[in-house]
User: Fold these one by one.
Assistant:
Number 1:
Amino acid sequence: MAELRTLARPYAKAAFKAAQEHEQLAQWSQVLTIAGQVTANEDIRQLLANPGLEEQKKAELTLEVAEDGVTEQVRNFFAVLAENRRLTLLPEISALFNTYRLIWSALLISK
């Protein structure tokens, strides 16, 4: 699990930074949470591991479950994940993203 977190961390940080820059933390959180839950399913993980399915098609299928909140930046992020064959890291990316979001919120409240 620690290895997966290590692999997921740079993607989660990049997603968080993009969401902050576009003031879309809630939207990104929603999409990543749904995608993380879906890709945690063993059947979906097997589908994502299928070498016969194009990587970009895997990204599109993953995004279809999270229709609301899918911006161009989110699509680009998922395209990068697919290109690097990292869609299966979405549960960890989602967890880290939401942790960063909680910390950020706590820092804002304490000011």
Number 2:
Amino acid sequence: MTISENNFYRVHSKFSPSYKNPMLSLNNFLISVNKSKWIMDKRNTKIGHGIGPYFRCNIYRGQVVSGTQAFWSSDYFGTGLEYFMFFEHLIKKDVFLNIIANFNIGFHQYYQATIINSNGGTAALSQEYWGLRLANQQLISIAFKKYL
């Protein structure tokens, strides 16, 4: 969305989908809203950057089995700040080469397993922690973009 001649908002989402029967997974799902600005806009080349908040998690959905409902669930939450820079070069009318570099840092949920040996048996305990971490599943993206 354009705010002014040099400023705009960008909504960005990415994830790694997989389906292993009976589970649909959207791993590393990330969505962000960035306020962006053109740094350079000359002839066929544009350079810009932006910053904004992001939210990430893993999303799962099990298949319906024997009349039971399929529920969506999620884990490994995180929230933080995303900064990105991009380069755009016009190849031909409304077709661009687009290179984007993302840097995400925020507080993320993670688990640490502890193995306990007592009375001749072994047990594993999992403890939830929140810590400052990077959330970069994709540092650099190269794409072709076409305006409709």
Number 3:
Amino acid sequence: MKNVLFIYGSLREQSSSKALTLALADRLGDQCIVTIAQIGDLPHFNSDIERNGAVTTFVDQIAAADGIVIVTPEYNYSVPGPLKNAIDWASRPALNSVFKGKPVFVISVSAGALGGVRAQAHLKYILNGMLAQVYPAPEIVVAHSIAAVEDGIFANVATLDFAAENLSGFFDVLDAREAAPE
């Protein structure tokens, strides 16, 4: 069974990116082994210091994953600082990081009308620069995402169905990679 690491970009306990991540992980749990990264445990990136336990755990989670699903909110027209910080920790050594060749599926959420499309574009640009394999699919952008969360649970079934449908294509790619001879 494939290992999929989910990373959500918000530290807020009641965030819509977290709620969507948990809903997708629950829905897809029978198709894959799901791990959810805790990026709030990471220190601020500083290349002068050695990796600590949280950084090593995060990098090891990425290395062990067959694929990664990132759900990013949009903060000030881009990715939030904690998500960028996590990516910076995992992006070393440059052009040969744990992200190199790693399949990544990107979803964005926003309280606004555009659904985080600018953050999604920025995140894909960053991932391409690290040589990750960003999965080409219809963009999953969740506008007015706060309204989709009821009592801490992401409740927009149409969005969950659309995301799950596109993630099944992503899983097909992961399965093909697993079956391919090395």
Number 4:
Amino acid sequence: MFQKIRVAVVKSTRPVYLAGLTSTLFFAVGVQKIDAQASLLARHAVYTGIFFLCMWIACRLFAGSLNRRLELEGVCAETAGDMIYTFVIYLELIKHVVGVSFTLGWIAGTMFCWDYLGHKMFLIPAGASLAVSLVAFLVTYITASFVDNLHWPGKDDE
């Protein structure tokens, strides 16, 4: 019974450790550039706290997506072999990288539409932004759907 509790506690603290490590590095690098001004140090500490929360949320979301993907493969995290776990991590990284990339591209594309076409009537930049949004959504959705349909070859597939 205590073994299961320990495993659950250790697994749920991994995102905290990773977020703490990256936040410490973020804070340490930022402190090197700050002269001895208390206001800058306090502002950097607040930004580090915000960075920690964002990293913790991102790690929790990634861990949740790994667990869901492992369930789709028919195994749980404790019983998954190294090859299946590596395969699942690889697929989830592909989905996350494509999602982040197209989200940043979508933001840049809509900002470009409003900056380049902002002097025209309202419907023109709004329509261009909608077109950029639809293209980014379709590419992201198709990629995620394709990756979700990839599965580890089971015994019946061989």
